[in-house]
Amino acid sequence: MSTLYLGLDASTQSLSAVLIDLDTRNAVCDISLNYDETLPHYGTQNGVLDNPDPKIVHAPPLMWAEALDALFDTLKAEGVSLGHIRAISGSGQQHGSVYLNAGIVRALSNLDPAKSLVQNLDGVFSRNTSPIWMDSSTRVECDEIRAALGGLQATTRATGSTTFERFTGPQIRKFYKTQPDAYAHTAHVMLVSSFMASLIAGTVAPIDHGDGAGMNLMDIQRRAWHPRALDATAPGLSDRLPPLAASRAVIGPVSRYFVDKYDFNPQAQALVWSGDNPNSVIGLGLIREGMVAISLGTSDTYFGTMKFCQTDPRGEGHVFVSPTGDYMTLLCFKNGSLARDAVRKAHGLDWDDFSRALQSTPPGNDGKIMLPYFEPEIVPNVLVPRVHRFDLDERDAAGNCRAVVEAQMMSMRLHAEWMGVRPSAIYATGGASVNPEILQIMADVQNCPVYPFEVTNSAALGAALRAAHAHLNASQDTPWEDLIAGIANPLSASAVSPSNPAVYDALRKKYAECEQSALGI
Ligand code: XUL
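Above: the input record for the complex with D-xylulose. Below: its predicted structure, written as tokens.
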């Protein structure tokens, strides 16, 4: 019998499944079900509901439950051996919250396989929609909670991040303030991750430390609910939250619902779920301090593993708990491919021309610097977009191409310094990671090797690996290194080594000074 582990990923637009076979070290199944296409009756666009106020972004939690049935129907119809799965875990888009009345406990423990999950969940929601991470409507509540916790630095030290509009605490506070009756009828507040885990396990699931850290409610050092943060958020909140747990925690066997309906083994274990970013840390193999992934997408993100909990005194970055039990950091730079594209288009270039421009200009760009805030920026915090140029002519096409990429890489290095951990290896993912010139600049600025690493579904893969790790470690010691070998490793043959690091030591100082003078910090 093969040894299968299942990882699910309830992301913004789809529910995905990755099934790994540890005997052959292969992903035997990797499927994704798009909410808009498969479940059009919820009326979502890109997985979210339309709202006249662009700051309000919600999704229907019932849709996620229906997607779970649809996904298992598909897997069963395709003949996937669900009965061979030993353990299941999952990943949820971070920060989103689900509100349920007291009826959920009974509904979960009596899930009837003759009905759908949607029918089983009839009448259990105290709020029909879930605010998700794209919601930015809680500025006032952020200010209130931050003030109650003693300001930006105190909040960051206490919960790992300062208050952010999308984080769950400010969202819960807004719900309590604007719909006090519905809040009073709420017996359980769950995250997307813990809601989905509750369905699989047939009981109210704990929230894991990784996703709990994205709520502004968890004491990041003690990994326990933070009583003052709870008080600052909403009355009676501690009674409405589940316990916190390490991400290797087993909730119990899968619910009978899945055994009877989809032929799961009754002994298959249901694990706690975590957020998509903590899961991706595992799916990308970032299991040791100093291992960093840089994703070059619409926005660029920088995330990595650190042993000790350092928080960002400027409040720009986040600290979550990694599934390895270490800490992980996340920095999001809004002007990623957005800015690279804006420069390319402004000079009428295609991507081959852009690469040629990088090849034809020297590392360090003869001291020409750009601050590429084409859009408001998250790191550093820039509210009013503006592109600044220093010793750089706006008409210099090649100089501007190099300047935007060097700026992005220097900004990442500069704004990750608070972590106190220098990267030893960087895994580059996302669309622009296919460009060797961009990776060379990354390697030079960070002065460490860069490995291009194309993975799809790193969150679902990470969840499957977490399931395997927890299941195997119940009977034998299986280090993360052994588990991920050959599954979540990049190809070392394609590494890009630093060749001009010294140039950037000087340029980084100049870049920091330009940033300080432009932003008045
Ligand atoms: C992280 C964040 C996003 C979501 C996307 O803080 O908001 O990455 O987790 O699903």
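Notes for the reader.
Residues 4-279 form a domain with the Nucleotidyltransferase; domain 5 fold (CATH 3.30.420.40).
The chain has a mean pLDDT of 96.
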